[in-house]
Design brief:
With about 250 residues, the chain is an alpha/beta fold. The protein is built from 8 helices and 14 strands. The strands form 3 sheets. A 6-stranded mixed β-sheet has the order 1-2-3-4-5-6, with helices on one face. Bound molecules: zinc ion (ZN) and fe (iii) ion (FE). The site of zinc ion has 5 residues, from loops.
Length: about 250
């Protein structure tokens, strides 16, 4: 039985995700950007929350944990770093699994944006929740980790099946597209950027994306092919990635 994903916007540009294992009705919340909005959404869906799954410690991902647990009694699962701002009922790390009814989430280590960042992958449904690691046409800023760590994390995500649906935690795609066009002249990127700009004009979301689409057009995953454009030709892949990331950090578009 499938996993149903209910996505909605929170704060200025976050997405929140309520997911339900249809076989059992067990429900989880992926990160807690805004407790009020999440509790209202649970109410209107008539879903009872069983689990909170955190990707990393940032307040726009774990800041609603306490309020939501107080109301719902949900079990909070996440990487150790979340204890900086919240209680955790269970600490998980790469290689662990988390059960939601009949749905199994594999925990994938995805440090770089923060040191302990993790992603959750439901292999049966080919659905991944990647927090602030991989974005549509982008990747998370390196607040805590090294480019090498983030490159390794992105490679673990890129190794998932191409058809995997990827739920990113922010709507950053239009500005990511403007940067991508500055380092990549490929026809595939141009076509996608046009679609993204048009979708945003219409007020539509560009999340979720897929692993296949990101491998074809995301300048961070394509860093080795763009090495010359960013002054890193002949360097290891992680250095090319570092150069693309550094270019994005100073891009004014
Ligand atoms: Zn973050
Ligand atoms: Fe975030």
């Amino acid at each position: 039985m499938p996993l149903t994903v209910h996505q909605f916007p929170c704060l200025s540009d976050n997405y929140a995700f309520l997911v339900r294992d249809e076989a059992t009705g067990k429900t989880a919340c992926i990160d807690t950007p805004e407790s009020g909005a999440i509790l209202r959404e649970l109410d209107s869906l008539g879903w009872d929350l069983d689990l909170i799954l955190n990707t990393h410690w940032h307040p726009d991902h774990a800041g609603g944990n306490a309020d939501i647990k107080a109301i719902t009694g949900a079990t909070i699962v996440g990487p150790h770093e979340v204890t900086r701002i919240s209680h955790l009922d269970r600490e998980v790390a790469g290689g662990d699994t988390v059960q939601l009814g009949e749905t199994t989430f594999q925990v994938i280590e995805s440090g770089g944006h923060t040191l302990g960042h993790i992603a959750y992958f439901d292999a049966a449904d080919r659905i991944a929740f990647v927090g602030d690691t991989l974005f549509a046409l982008g990747c998370g800023r390196l607040f805590e980790g090294t480019p090498e760590q983030m490159w390794d994390s992105l490679q673990r995500l890129a190794a998932l099946p191409d058809e995997t649906t990827v739920y990113c935690a922010h709507e950053y795609t239009a500005s990511n597209a403007r940067f991508a066009l500055s380092v990549d002249a490929s026809a595939a990127l141009k076509a996608r950027a046009d679609e993204v700009f048009a979708a945003r004009e219409r007020g539509e979301w560009t999340v979720p994306t897929t692993i296949g689409l990101e491998k074809a057009t995301n300048p961070f995953l394509r860093a080795p092919a763009l090495a010359e454009r960013v002054g890193a030709s002949g360097e290891p892949d992680a250095r090319a990635f570092a150069a693309v990331r550094a270019a994005k950090d100073v891009f004014k578009g």
